[in-house]
Amino acid sequence: MTVRVSTALGTLLGCGLALACDGGAGEGSGGSRPSGGGTALTVGAERQGEATYYAATGEGACMFDASPSDLNVAALNSPDWAGSAWCGACADVTGPSGSVRIRIVDLCPECASGDLDLSPEAFQQLAAIELGRVPITWRLVTCDVAGPVSYRYKDGANQWWTAVQVLNHRVPVQSMEYSKDGASYSPMVRQDYNYFLTESGFGEGTTRVRITSVDGQVLEDELPPVQEYLVVEGTAQFQ
User: Fold this and answer.
1) I need a surface site. Which of 49, 145, 153, 166 has the fewest CB within 10 A?
2) Residue with the larger pLDDT of the pair 149 and 22
3) Using one digit for the tens of pLDDT, what is the confidence trace for 153-176?
4) Which domains can be identified in the chain, with CATH numbers?
5) For the segment 95-121, what is each residue's pLDDT rounded down to a tens digit?
6) Taking a C-beta distance cutoff of 8 angstroms, is the pair 65, 109 a contact?
7) CA-closest candidate to residue 183, choices 215, 210, 219
8) What letter would DSSP give residue 183?
9) What angle do CA 134, 72, 19 make, to 5 degrees?
10) CA nearest to 85, candidates 123, 147, 117, 43
11) How far apart are CA 138 and CA 128, in angstroms?
């Protein structure tokens, strides 16, 4: 191997179970929420919005596994969602009485632009949990991850229909391509459920893949024959 250096959206935990979205107890004022500024989400740019909380497990529309040992996670608002483009991204969030670094794992369909729906564990590092809804500022940052990126074949993936998820990335992944000859690459299409798909499949044997981060870094790896659920460790990590 060589290297160059959030249903249709999974489970709608971001608002399906979020009290912030249905005005339930413990989530502040409820009711209508003002729209955000609509600025496109970019790494490093400061955003403003409101934080709420929900019963997060680490699972959700991004189709990641539950992460009971790391519950500093959040659901991203729908206007900023961009078809799962920010799944796995990390953000430094500042609230009225503290700050926390979170990881995007889910979608909150009814949250306004700039808003984050946090786990209770993350929310209480920003403000008293009983406040339910508080103003925040936040910015996307590089994640503190160890080791190389990984790739996971989706359940149901086969040589005729292949979907691959990228895991453990320091910087969000913008695109994924595949090659059978190592020379010419074909694009895969990002799905709202945070997998890259080729409906014609990888075919038999090994396949080379090339992923590009949102800041232009490129990694190449060789994946073994398609096997659903299989997780394959890559050879490098984004900087």
Assistant:
1) 145
2) 149
3) 999 999 999 999 999 999 999 999
4) 13-141 (2.40.40.10), 150-233 (2.60.40.760)
5) 999 999 999 999 999 999 999 999 999
6) no
7) 210
8) S
9) 45
10) 43
11) 18
Q: Say which residues have a Cβ less than 8 Å from residue 209's Cβ, sequence separation at least 6.
A: 151, 164, 176, 177, 178, 179, 220, 221, 222, 223
Locate 174 and state its tokens. Answer: 């913008």
How sure is the predictor about 27, in pLDDT bands with cuts at 50, 70 and 90? very low
Q: Retrieve residue 205's tokens.
A: 């044997």
State both tokens at 113. Answer: 């632009």
Angle, CA 117 vertex, CA 116 and CA 123 arms, to 5°: 100
Q: Which two tokens stand for residue 112?
A: 């306004």
Kindly state the DSSP code that residue 21 receives in the 8-state scheme. H
Give the bridge partners for 196, in sequence order.
164, 190
List the structure tokens of 162: 């292949």
Q: What local confidence, expressed as pLDDT, does residue 165 receive?
A: 98
Query: What angle is formed at CA 12 by the lines to CA 102 and CA 37, rounded to 5 degrees?
Result: 60
Q: Tokens 């050879």 map to which residue?
A: 235
Residue type present at position 214: V
For residue 6, the one-letter residue type is S
Q: With a cut of 70, say whether residue 23 has pLDDT above it.
A: no
Residue 89 has pLDDT above 90, yes or no: yes
Beta strands in 4-126 (DSSP E): 47-53, 73-77, 90-95, 98-108, 116-118
pLDDT of residue 41: 80
The answer for residues whose C-beta is within 8 angstroms of residue 19's C-beta and 6 or more apart is 25, 26, 27, 52, 53, 54, 132
Tell me: pLDDT of 44 over 90: no
Q: Is the pLDDT of residue 17 over 60?
A: no
